[in-house]
Amino acid sequence: MISTLPDQGIIFWPVGNGDSTTICVDKRTVIQVDLNHLEKADDKDDPRYPVLDELKKLLPKSDDKSYLSVFVLTHPDQDHCRGFSELLKKVTINELWFTPRVFSEYKKDLSDDAKALQTEAKRRLKVVIKNKGKVNDGDRIRVIGYDDLLKEDDYKDLPKDLLTIPGNTIDVINGSSKASAFSAFIQSPFKDDADGDRNDTSLGMQVVLKSADNKFRVLLLGDLAYPTIRRIFDRSEKENLSWDVFLAPHHCSKKVMYVKDENDEDTLKKDMMDSFESNEQDDAYIIASSQSDFTDEKGDDPPHTKARKQYEKITVSGHFLYTAEYPDKKNPEPIEFKMVDGSFSLSGKKGADENKKSSLAAAVATARGSDAPPHEQVGFGK
């Protein structure tokens, strides 16, 4: 149970197969990346968290109303924005980050919450353009990624400083610099993926939380699959790919590291796993925001057993965690990393036990040395 948000840290909520990630930059600056609030979770016999209700209680307040500094949507699938309509009513969202796909999404399977987010994004866009970017909390936006749509009359006057394309860093929130405590390096979406599958247009980023002498790196790649993630690792500098925590894309999907061959069989792309491993920091964790029904049956949705096995190969024993069973299946709790005495660590009793194990493993690894080849990527673009 979380009684207060950390002054600085990150929380992965147990919400089934869906993403709800809370980033605490400081006491007054909280970022929510995606939301999967399930009304069923209000049932006492359902172990999943009613994340929206928890946020409303824990978030900082202004004029007696809870507020988020930023809500970030990686892509408009239901399991990434479920509950947004209710969130908008109960919580002030100072700033909204989203990709251009939100403006143009038209598919019939768009959920009511995704439609509500699209409506809110368009409303804010009009206010921002009318006021040339000088707006108050509750009207702010940031568009992430470039699309030819932005050349059209309805969008062309979006202030340039509110558009961020891959290869650039964001460290300004609500008009104020947070560079000493936070930065987000944008990895995707790429311009030429704009008309692709919705998952392929996911916002991908490396979030860095900073203390006076420490950095905590979190890699968030939405529901991206191998082709786009491969491009990210080929184009980005190593410093923007390093990770202490990696949220397994698409709820531990095998499509991150497996592709279909000519016989429609899964083929492992070992280069992808090598890239993940070469950018992994000491004592790193991989988190799967998923339920515990891992499977490899054809046609089954994630989480996939094949992906889990590959991730477990590159992490310290016990450092692959999934939200449905942390610390146990009957009573899952949010997975929380926070800064303590100048360093970031996993909170809770299990966290303390795992940190002891990981420290020993790190010492053993250092003694053995490493024969992993360096993996530098340079250059970036649309």
> pLDDT under 50 segments (min length 5)?
356-379
Number of helices: 10
Q: Could you please say which CATH topology applies here?
A: Metallo-beta-lactamase, Chain A
User: In what range is the share of β-strand residues?
Assistant: 25-35%
The biggest sheet, with number of strands, parallel, antiparallel or mixed sense and barrel status, is: 10 strands, mixed
**Average of per-residue pLDDT values:** 90
Give the structural class: alpha/beta
Broad CATH class: Alpha Beta
Overall body shape: globular
What does this structure look like?
This protein has 382 residues and is an alpha/beta fold. It has a single domain, classed as Ribonuclease Z/Hydroxyacylglutathione hydrolase-like (Metallo-beta-lactamase, Chain A). Helices cover 25% and strands 26% of the residues. It contains 10 helices and 22 strands. The chain has helices at residues 51-58, 78-81, 84-90, 101-104, 112-130, 226-235, 249-252, 270-278, 305-313, 348-368; strands spanning 9-12, 21-26, 29-33, 35-36, 61-62, 65-72, 92-98, 140-144, 163-164, 169-170, 172-173, 176-177, 182-188, 204-210, 215-220, 243-247, 258-260, 266-268, 280-288, 320-322, 335-340, 343-346. Strands 1, 2, 3, 5, 6, 7, 8, 9, 21 and 22 form a 10-stranded mixed sheet that branches. The longest helix has 21 residues, at 348-368. The radius of gyration is 20 Å and the shape is globular. The model is unreliable at 356-379 (pLDDT under 50).
